[in-house]
Automatic annotation (TrEMBL):
It comes from Ancylostoma caninum. Keywords: Membrane, Transmembrane, Transmembrane helix. This is CTP synthase. The keyword Nucleotidyltransferase does not apply. The lineage of its organism: Eukaryota, Metazoa, Ecdysozoa, Nematoda, Chromadorea. Residues 18-163 form the CTP synthase N-terminal domain. It comes from the Eukaryota.
Length: 167
């Protein structure tokens, strides 16, 4: 039987993607990124292929215009994506190469949904937070989680998702 994400298990069947969510309060700097990276290292050392996604609630499209005094340093990915420093930790800890798509912001998702609405993807429906915006986030995560990030053509087994909840 072929499962939807394209991975094969020992029986020749595609194995389902596993997700690990790491979240924790509104306090910045408590170590959610390091914890996420460390969990990834443990999984990788046990033979799993690991990817990572960070979800930030801010309305900016990316971290490129952030004040380093307010938000900390910006990390620049190989594809030019300007993202939170945690993605740099993921890359170094897990020895992977991520893209700007591994960083989701509310602003980026608003832009994505608005572009889809302008193209007519919603067939004239009134675009709403639920289901359109939430579905767009789910579809984005499912798509990006399956992209090989370790230099092989093999899809990850596990995607660690750091979800930031701050005000």
């Amino acid at each position: 039987m072929v499962l939807e994400n394209g991975l094969m298990n020992g029986d020749g069947e595609e194995a389902p993607m596993k997700y690990i969510l790491v979240t924790g309060g509104v306090i910045s700097g408590v170590g959610k990124g390091i914890i996420s990276s460390s969990i990834g290292v443990l999984l990788k050392n046990n033979g799993y292929k690991v990817s990572a996604i960070k979800i930030d609630p801010y309305l900016n499209i990316d971290a490129g215009t952030f004040s380093p005094y307010e938000h900390g340093e910006v990390f620049v990915l190989d594809d030019g994506g300007e993202v939170d420093l945690d993605l740099g930790n993921y890359e170094r800890f897990l020895n992977v190469r991520l893209t700007r798509d591994n960083n989701i912001t509310t602003g980026k998702m608003f832009q994505h949904v608005t572009e889809r609405e302008r193209r007519g993807d919603y067939c004239g429906k009134t675009v709403q937070m639920i289901p359109h915006f939430t579905d767009a986030i789910i579809q984005w995560v499912e798509r990006v989680a399956r992209i090989p990030v370790d230099g092989t053509l093999e899809r990850p087994d596990v995607c660690i998702i750091e979800v930031i909840l701050r005000h």
